[in-house]
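Thanks for the sequence, V.! I ran FAD-binding PCMH-type domain-containing protein right away. Repeating your input here for the record:
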Amino acid sequence: MGDSCSAFLPLLLLLLSASLVASDSIQDSFYKCLSVNSQISFPLSTSFFTPNISAFTSILQSSAQNLRCLVPSVPKPELIFTPLNESHVQAAVICSKQLGIQLRVRSGGHDYEGLSYMSQVETPFVVVDLSKLRSIDVDIEDNSSWVQAGATVGEVYYRISEKSKTHGFPAGLCTSLGIGGHITGGAYGSMMRRYGLGADNVLDARIVDANGRILDRESMGEDLFWAIRGGGGASFGIILSWKLKLVPVPATVTVFTVPKTLEQGATKILYKWQQVADKLDEDLFIRVIINVASAAAKGERTVQTSYNALFLGGVDRLLKVMSESFPELGLQRKDCTEMSWIESVLYIAGYPSSTPPAVLLQGKSLFKNFFKAKSDFVREPIPETGLEGLWKRLLEEESPLMIWNPYGGMMSKIPESEIPFPHRNGTLFKIQYLTSWQDADKDIAAKHIDWIRRLYNYMASYVSLFPRTAYVNYRDLDLGMNKDGRNTSFIQASGWGNKYFKNNFNRLGF
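Predicted structure:
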């Protein structure tokens, strides 16, 4: 959903059970059915978008992050429906089932393979875009907030900060993520080492199941409530809203970004980071952003590693922690900036320092291009020789990016079976690989995708094995997919399901 639409969707399998209606009647049939089944009427001109109206393309592209999924050759929806209330979503599910139309649902559009707004097969489908369902009700006394699925994590952070400077929520670093789909995959962020994932901090939810029923935690039961918190977006229903458990944050936090190039000893420093990152004070999150930059020598390129951090406390205690645990980075007071937690959200998301927090209400993605991404989890430090081979391969690509996110802390204390997200104790860090380009040309895309696949193959001996695991919110269709939408067996699906969920896939699959 939104940020991670599952490639093996039980909900969609139900919706595909009937024979498809003729393409030329889908729009009329769907609209008539919605009108009959919705308790509340909706304005056609602002809720129902078909390919023959000018607004269709802008609505389709509005939250689509990966332009690779919008090229002309990719199948487009028969229509986009933007519900204004819960009964509209109910009606969309009921009508999709009655008419045999495939349903795609998006909250933020950050799913890496575009599965919330495209189809891998030539099958008519409808997109239900939840962007107008974005109310946020923060209750500081109860330490909770009800948040509709179409709200972005940035909006959630901002609305919490309006009510309290000492409350927060441990979800994503990218502020334009749709909260609905984001949490269905787990939702990691810069406070995960202190409080766990966003999905670990959900108290209740409202969903529409495959039969069009609206269910909360009590009525859906604990098995389904377990599954939706990390089991993959749209796999078990459409998320309408989450009840989030707010967490305490200090009035003052500290951030820093320290870059190190190969010429500045990046290899040895990164090897040391791997040994300590999961063991640092739980209030300290240091991720490493790795890219290729211009070297000191004119015309040369080098690898740059940037240590980007949030510390839930003041600079004095941070410097003490770093001097004791990671002196190799050489962190100095001048590298650090104290600020409020909401200001740190903007900092970690990459906004300029003078940006007012209200920008989070715009919900717009800072990252929109053609890209391909993959992920890995690492359980043993990668040796320096392995890193040197990695640098060689990064320097072959035009715009490579890697992000290494540390685990440990609370992530090691929560059992693997607590929710479907299984990457817990023993995981040192997660790697995100990404390559991007600016041209829709197929040959250009193929070149970059071939490069990231070769890089992924190179890393095989340094990452988790049996299975080689992956993060479901970084959906990667190279790992496997439901080829025709309905005829994939559980055994076939386990080939990729185990990579995302490990042993938890057995519980998700039955």
